[in-house]
Amino acid sequence: MSYTIQEKTDILKELIAMAHADDHLKKEEVEFIKAIASRIEVDEEQLRIMLDNPDKEPVQPPKQFVKRIIHFHRLMLMMHIDGNVDDSELQLLHEIALRYGIRGLTVNKLLSTMEKYPHGEIPPSELLEIHSETSN
């Protein structure tokens, strides 16, 4: 999947915001962000600058439905990566869901579904199914 420069920046900004939501930036979170940055082809220097200077301004949700779903799942994985879901992380997730046009019912269903899978990685077909059934 290809992303514009703005989409790449926004993806990383939101992941960094989620990592900072509980006021504890952990090694696992940084490694996850680095892996995503590599996957979407953002160079290490640009990522380092973003990590050192987190931008708390809200970003534009991806325009394509599939990109919103994929990125929202990344945010959920980030929230769970340290094994502890803080209330501030959950609040941020719900705020982002609202901006993305994702219903609370969908978020709750996704969170409960994540518990069924190792590391919370919901298969893509099931992600699409959940989003489709709860948005109609």
Helix content: 55-70%
* Biggest sheet statistics: none
Report the count of strand segments: 0
Question: What would the CATH topology be?
Answer: TerB-like
Protein name: TerB family tellurite resistance protein
What does this protein look like?
There is one protein chain. The chain is an all-alpha fold. The chain has one domain (5-134): Orthogonal Bundle (TerB-like), CATH 1.10.3680. Helices cover 66% and strands 0% of the residues. It has seven helices and no strands. The protein has helices at 5-20, 27-39, 44-52, 65-80, 87-100, 104-114, 124-134. Helix 1 runs parallel beside helix 4. The longest helix has 16 residues, at 5-20. The radius of gyration is 14 Å and the shape is globular. The model has no long low-confidence stretch (mean pLDDT 91).
Q: What is the element layout, followed by pairings?
A:
Layout: H1 5-20, H2 27-39, H3 44-52, H4 65-80, H5 87-100, H6 104-114, H7 124-134
Helix pairs in contact: 1-2, 1-4, 4-5, 4-7, 6-7
Organism: Nonlabens agnitus
InterPro entries: TerB-like
Protein name: TerB family tellurite resistance protein
Throw out a few tags for this protein.
single chain, mainly alpha, globular
Briefly say what this structure is.
The chain is mainly α.
